[in-house]
Amino acid sequence: MALSILLLEDDIDLGETLAQLLEIEGYDVEWVKRGNDVIDLTFEKRYDLYIFDIGVPDIDGLDLLKALRDADDDTPAIFISARTDIASIMRGFETGAYDYIKKPFFPEELLVRIRAKFETKAGVIECGDLQYDPVKKMVMKEGKPVALGEVQVSLLHLFVTNVGRVVDKSDLMDCLHSPSDAALRVAINKLKQTTGLPIRNVRGLGYMLEAC
User: Fold this and answer.
1) CA-CA distance, 171 to 5, in Å (whole number)?
2) What angle do CA 26, 27, 31 make, to 5 degrees?
3) Which domains occur in the chain, in start order?
4) What are 168's strand-pairing partners?
């Protein structure tokens, strides 16, 4: 599943350049130009990364991220801004961003910062107190191995790579040796009991891991 990015940038040329570059790299990008657009979109959808300019219409990026953090939104965030004074940079990090890129910058620099955050953990996915290695098919909980069968690992993979999104029931059925509604319910209940993950049924659609 592609990394989902919400880009806030009111400079048309820069926004278009960044959006195209990120999409070429395989990221799923939504580009907006006003702070209120971010509020509307984050109410409806969960993202993997925010990239916010600061000086934008409606509500500036700093106040916007603070509001999101106050609402318990811990999505990683990068600021891109022409504000290069120490006070702005310090406030950016204090607000909860993990990086701050000063304008002007080479667009490729943004890719480097994203990769440094999301691609340096040897592919291990963390979800609460769980660590899942999708290559080795290994699961750890609080530093101890968790014994999961092939079906359980396949289901876990779908959920932890789609946190906050509904996973279609047909995709979950593909993980089962003998697919049926009853077998799927049993398998998911067993996964919940073993891992403690907050997986819930979305009637008529599938199942969703609400949060890590």
Assistant:
1) 24
2) 135
3) 4-118 (3.40.50.2300), 125-209 (1.10.10.10)
4) 206
* 21-44 core/surface letters (b: 16 or more CB in 10 A; e: else): ebeeeebebebbbebebbbeebee
53-69 per-position pLDDT tens digit: 999 999 999 999 999 99
CA distance 188 to 108: 41
pTM across the whole model: 0.58
Cα separation, 113 vs 109, in Å, equals 6
CA distance 152 to 13: 46
Q: Quick: pLDDT tens for 21-62.
A: 999 988 999 999 999 999 999 988 889 999 999 999 999 999
Question: Which of 160, 155, 139 has its CA nearest to residue 190?
Answer: 155
Query: Which H/E stretch holds residue 86?
Result: helix 86-95
Sheet holding 49-53, edge to edge: 28-32, 4-8, 49-53, 77-81, 99-102
Tokens of 180: 């049926």
How far does CA 122 lie from the centroid of its chain? Answer: 17
Name the pairing type of β-strands 138-141 and 144-145: antiparallel
